[in-house]
Amino acid sequence: MPIIQMSRYKALSWMRLASYVCLAASLLSGCSLLPDEEETLQPPVQVKKQTNHETALVKKGSIEKYLSTTASALSSSNTSVSFPESGGQIKKLFVQTGELITAGSPIAELDTGDLQTRIKLQKLTVEQKQIIYSGAVKTGSSPKDSRLAQIDLDREQLILASLEKEYNKSLLLAPVSGKITYLSVPNPGEGVTAFQTIATIANPDAIELIYESTDVKNINGVKKDTDVTIKYKDKTYQGKVAQTPATAPKSDDPILQKRNAKALIIAFNSPKPTIEIGDYVDIKLFIEKKDNILIVPRSSLRTFLGRSTVQVIDGERVKELDVETGLMTSAEVEITKGLDEGQKVILG
């Protein structure tokens, strides 16, 4: 083989070898272009969370329940007033609620049309007949003429008396003195019927206190003659429970029945304060006491839709238990079923 061809062949061989080396080097170096593999993260170590509950022990003890609230002053002597014979349209009101009135004073008047005008005209007629009759007597008229004049006078007087009687029926007068505490017809022009209560007159000297409970269960334990502490205008007085729902008298008045079913009536002991109807006082009275019972704080009790529950600590767990309750105050609750003495309840 010629020397030139041999040299060319060797040159090509070296070039192929160099290209292979470069290719291998590029492949090896290409690995460095890939992104570094992320380091695998270890899972977090779970630490058990410690929950600190505020607790209290179920214990045996005593509960005293008191009622501290407000009561209003009202009269124990109230007189209802109505038109006794007929109704009609109210023409005029002579009084307002809260006003003092004396017996015989007018309260309301019914509309009688032109009756008052007719009464005035009839009074003139009576006066006229009186003059005629007196003249007949003075002038010595015959007995017949004098008698006829007297008959005319008597007739007109009877007509006048009948008209005045009719007008008096349209007037509603106060049968007793006192304070107007109720008016069913606040404005003239309204219609009323016979025996419909138009006004109530209260005796301001016969004052007692009333407390109406929103829930009769709150006063079920109150006994008649229970002592009551009363505060009025920064002074303290004493009284007694005069009436409870259990001792309330029977009544045909549905409004009074409803009130008595949830009310306490309290009477002042002597000395009594000067107090107005409608004034408010603060009262405090003993309701009930129980000894040797299971007690938990009121804040531990949970109620929902009539269900009462408490949460108790049981080892490392919290359990919810159904309970039955008894006497209850703003701070404590009697547990009659569901808990044992010494258990720990969670305060909510």
From TrEMBL:
GO CC annotation, single:
cell envelope
Q: Where is the signal peptide?
A: 1-24
Keywords of the record, alphabetical order, are:
Coiled coil, Signal
Predominantly, its location class is other
Where, subcellularly, is it found? Cell envelope
Q: Which PANTHER family match?
A: EFFLUX SYSTEM COMPONENT YKNX-RELATED
The molecule here is called MacA family efflux pump subunit
Q: Where does this protein come from, organism-wise?
A: Paenibacillus nasutitermitis
